[in-house]
Amino acid sequence: MAKGNFHACHAVTAAWEGGWSDHDRDPGGATMYGVTIGTLSKWRGRQVTKAEVKALTRSEAEQIYKAWYWDAVKGDQLPAGIDLVIYDFAVNSGPSRAARALQEALGVRQDGAIGPVTLAALSKADAHTVINAVCDGRMAFLCELFTWDAFGKGWSNRVTDVRKKAKGMVGKPTSAPMSNGTNSGKSATFFSLILSFLSNLFKRA
After folding, report:
1. d(Cα 110, Cα 139) in Å, to the nearest integer?
2. Handedness of CA 185, 186, 190, 191 (dihedral sign)
3. How many CB atoms are closer than 10 A to CB 84?
4. Rounded CA gap, 65 and 161, in Å?
5. What is the model's pTM?
6. 3-class secondary structure per residue, the chain
7. Which residues are within 8 A (CB) of 165 and not within 5 positions of it... i.e. 6 or more apart?
8. Is the pLDDT of residue 36 over 90?
């Protein structure tokens, strides 16, 4: 389980999503940090303007990503590495499609919602095998999109990068306990005093 890995995964995804975009071939329209005008309108509960999209802060964008993509695919319950490929797929193509890709890789029913059955199957699977299967399935899906000629090269590079970085995360701890600098200093001082005392004692002997 990769609880606490959201920020590491989001950093990879955010780098690919970039900043402001309003490409005429992009069905999402005006986009900032990967958040489309439609998504931001739904998030704020009203229709927003392009100017409001362009003024979107990184902080609010991250809140949207955490609530609607990471949490939607149970990111905190996925193993390190697999969480990245599923999260990035969800951001790019929707949480339901990403979940189905994972379920297909695991050979369980593809209902588009990650639940106990999917997680149980995942706990017995090889992480590298799952990562490869999901990334291969993702590429197969992207190749069929009518916008492939405009965005295919970037998508291909993105999936290659995500696959590599996901494999690098496998088996690594997602967070480390914080050391207490004050207590560490006190311990070091205490042991130094003991060593000094013993050294002087032996010299006198």
Report:
1. 18
2. negative
3. 28
4. 20
5. 0.81
6. CCCCCHHHHHHHHHHHHCCEECCCCCCCCCEECCEEHHHHHHHHCCCCCHHHHHCCCHHHHHHHHHHHHHHHHCHHHCCCCHHHHHHHHHHHHCHHHHHHHHHHHHCCCCCCCCCHHHHHHHHCCCHHHHHHHHHHHHHHHHHCCCCHHHHHHHHHHHHHHHHHHHHHHCCCCCCCCCCCHHHHHHHHHHHHHHHHHHHHHHHHC
7. 12, 84
8. yes
List own/partner pairs for 44-51 with CB under 8 A and 24 or more apart: 50/22
Query: What gap in Å lies between CA 163 and CA 103, rounded to an integer?
Result: 18
Per-residue burial over 149-174, b = 16 or more CB atoms within 10 Å of its CB, e = otherwise = eeeeeebeebbeebbebbbebbeeeb
The yes-or-no verdict on residue 82 having pLDDT over 50 is: yes
99 to 75, 122, 156, 188, 196: CA distances (angstroms): 11, 12, 20, 50, 61
Structure tokens at 105: 């890789």
Asked if 116 and 104 touch (Cβ cutoff 8 Å), the reply is no
| Interval 107-116 mean pLDDT | 97
